[in-house]
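WARN retry 2 of 3 for item q-0093 after timeout on previous attempt; input resubmitted unchanged.
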Amino acid sequence: MMKKAFTLSETLIALVVVGIVAALTIPALIENHNQKALNTAREVFLRRFQEATKQMNTDGKMTGYSTTEDFVNAFKNYMKTIQVCTTEEKGKCFAKEIKIPNNNQDEIFETSDLKTARNFKKDFDTNIVGYVLSSGQTMLLTYDPKCSYIDIFNNNEDSTKCISMLYDVNGKRKPNRQGEDIFTLGGVQLSVNCTKTYKGLDFSLLCEAFHPESLNTCEDSTWDDRTPDPRYCQLNYWAGAKKQCTELGMRLPSRSELLKIAQQQYTTSNGKPISANGNGKLTQEIMSTDKWYWSSKPCSSGHCAYGLKFYNDGVSTRLYNRDIYISNGAGFARCVQ
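OK item q-0093 returned
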């Protein structure tokens, strides 16, 4: 008896079904394969990095540096290096943008905003330096100058504890996403802070001013170590502003920086920069008017800090430079970096 063969239409339907199944499954298989490759690359990188720091520590070369640059200069002898980039040029050594997963969408973090360890939410100020290994993997790292002796005979002590860094096991290639090919070491915390630059200023500002939360510096003098004045120190908004700016990897502006902002925002009638406590004409709005802004400068007494008020009565603008009670909750903070 003659066997019945598949018809052309049946063959085509079977090919379509196979194509649909392949289209649904192959991308997932490729993605899983790629992620496994990235995870393996991460494991290899961490093993090599830890071996290098352990050897460096055994040689007595892990501690005692005052800058990240000094540490990196020694570290180059323990991991093969292609390129080292300064803080200003780190975009040559690392992806210029980092994707940070946030619910169902990515937020973009500009690596140009990473300048010092404060931007990693650390309590020291050394520079962040870029680093490219011979394997093509890249790092942004900073060194803690307060790092103490590491016991080389204690296997439980982390030889990497002096270092905080971002590392990309895929180099500059995509996806450049935290948790996929970009990872952290040493308690690094990244958050997306909106910053703006303005004409005439050599520093950037947090996009929005905010009312700081108060701190009780009668009991904890971490953020205001002056002799506390019990009339004001229970609600210390100036200390709260300092703390919140630091947690953003930024700082409060100095008095001279606030005045520089005012001089870019206002000019006098004859076009000259406005002086402290002077009248001027609005040229570009950087700080909202009718608000007090804290500076980083404390008063000599324990109850106040200096600030500026950008005032506008609808006819002219005026800049007030004076001290503000630290318990004054009306003051705003605008962090800079």
